[in-house]
Specification:
Length: about 190
Amino acid sequence: MQLADGGRYVLRPITPDDKHTLIDGFARLSPQSRMSRFFNNTKQLTDEQLRYFTEIDYVDHFAWVVFDIDSPDHPGAGVARYIRLHDDPEVAEAAFTVVDDHQGRGLGILLVVALADVARKHGIHRFVLYIRADNDAMIGLARALGAHMVVDEPGVLRGELLLDEFADDGMDTFPPAGSTPPGGSVEPAQ
């Protein structure tokens, strides 16, 4: 895939062989990005986390990994994953991480679209997103996609994104730049 700024990337499902890619990508995340993704001061990924993140079933737990093909060693640039909720099989918790030097280029929205397409094919119709209240970039992305946002707990927002609102080919259904998407406000949890 090629971004509007000309950057070129390859997207594929994560495999158990991508443990080193995750270690490398994690090392290239800023402390703020690590906090935004893991909600704590995680210094490195454990062997258990690496297994959990890469040894998946591709139905109830799916993840995309994206590589920067314009860099000589084709480093990982981001990951998008969902994990189906056991108590509601049509809902999955979703998480997205883009390495700092690739942020702000539109890669996040492409990861969301690709993940939503796979999720729908496996009977998932809604993503739940947990976002730190200080993660302006992710809150902006969730709002642009029409996520309904509520306060989950102090410092954490919960966004709910209806996947059936996206077309299978993705990008043609996004709100135009500058438009006000539905669910753009944050409300207290009931």
